[in-house]
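The instructor's notes for this session suggest beginning with a concrete chain rather than abstract definitions. Hand out the sequence below and ask the class to guess, before any prediction is shown, which regions might be ordered.
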Amino acid sequence: MIERLTSETFAAALPGLADLLVDAVHGGASIGFLAGFDHEQATAWWRERAEAVAGGSLAVWTAAGPDGLAGTVSLAYADKPNASHRAEVVKLAVHRDHRGQGLGRRLLATAEQAAAAAGVTMLLLDTETGSAADHLYRSAGWQRYGVVPDYAAGPTGELRACSFYYKPVPAA
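After discussion, reveal the predicted structure:
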């Protein structure tokens, strides 16, 4: 079951959200953190988002697994008046034990549907070029509009290319 976290449920989900981030980094995902990233740092990173969740500028969904959280996705709403029609899909992560079962696709669809319900008409995201996520977004109808070489460092510090995507969202 995929559930949107509220400001009340967000705090209780912090350990599981931290586990997902740590698992992603240890699995080699280029999601903003370097090797040595630990549970304490991941918890602190998520905790810093509590105000955005409470204020509604960040929506976070989780999917429960038998041993904790199996996946998460977030939707960051634009804060500029000329960008109120768009949002960014961020931190889509599926625990390595739960990959290959369609959970990433279901989480992505959840964010897309919520965006449409909120009146968002354009979604954006970026991901490591050639990654499993890159393939997921293309197969889910996202349009790549560019690739930047050496955009961000992977967990071990090597620079990696990044693909940038957009997807128009039909009205709900």
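Then share the key points. The first strand starts at residue 2 and ends at 4. The CA atoms of residues 25 and 155 lie 6 Å apart.
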